[in-house]
Every structure is written in C-alpha cells, then in structure tokens.
Write a structure and sequence with these properties.
alpha/beta; 5-stranded mixed beta sheet; two-stranded antiparallel sheet
Length: 142
C-alpha cells in the first residue's frame, strides 16, 4: 500500500478515488502491467476480467499499470477489455516506480502483493491462466 500512498486511482468511466479508499477491506493487490498494443496482453486481459469477477469478492483488487503510449489508448483499452478495476493514472510517476520496484521486464505481468507491499508472486498471470480464482487466491493468501 505504501507504493500507492497519496495516489488517486482511476476507472474507465473517468471516476477517481484515493487508493486508500479503493483498497479498503482488500487483502491482496494484483498489479496488472499491460498495454493495448501488446497482443499477448490482449489475449490475457479477458481471462483476467473473468477471474476478477470472483476474485474481487475474495479480497483481491487489481490495479492496472499501463504501458500504453497515450492516455486515450489506455482508457480505450480499459473500456474495451478490462474488468471494473482501478488503474494508476496515465503518466503518473507511480507507474514507473512500480515497474522498477517489481522489476517488470515484459508484459503482461501480474504481480500479487499483500497490502504492506510484500510480494506474494510475480507470476500471477500463470495462476490466473491455470487455476480457478478460489484456488489461486487461496494459494496467494497461504
């Protein structure tokens, strides 16, 4: 959570909320590093959207960290493919800081962390693709 302190997160509809409020009551944050221009990302995002429908009720919140070239591309991608999760605003220094902190070398990448920032897995995308939401979340919380 320290990585998002003071940050306002946005949704595809243009609304924004303080990260602290957005993440209240959640146990895990899944940072989704992705971009609309990336074909593997466009294949994975629908899976993540389906996964999120169940996982959000199990204490998981997804925060999208865009690799798009423009705010318009980011918002279009969110409206077109994403679940009803939050995103770091386009161009926000927080996005670059998160990328560096979690050593993101390629996308899509789903990094699951506890609220205190402790890394649970840097391969959350594999869990989303290979496990049920209940099984993945149970393993993440273990």
């Amino acid at each position: 959570m320290d990585s998002l302190a003071g940050v306002k997160l946005v949704k595809a509809d243009g609304s924004s909320v303080d990260a602290e409020k957005a993440l209240a009551g959640k146990e895990l944050i899944a940072y989704y590093f992705s971009g609309h221009w990336c074909p593997p990302c466009r294949r994975f995002t629908p899976m993540l959207k389906t996964f999120y429908q169940e996982a959000s009720a199990l204490g998981v919140e997804i925060v999208f960290v865009s690799s798009d070239q423009s705010e318009e591309a980011m918002v279009d991608y969110m409206k077109e493919s994403h679940g009803d999760w939050f995103a770091v605003p386009f161009g926000e220094k927080t996005a670059e800081a998160l990328s560096k902190k979690y050593d993101i070398a390629g996308i899509p990448s789903l990094v699951v962390v506890k609220l205190d920032g402790t890394v649970v897995t840097k391969e959350g995308d594999d869990d989303v693709a290979g496990k049920t939401p209940a099984d993945a979340v149970k393993a993440w919380k273990a």
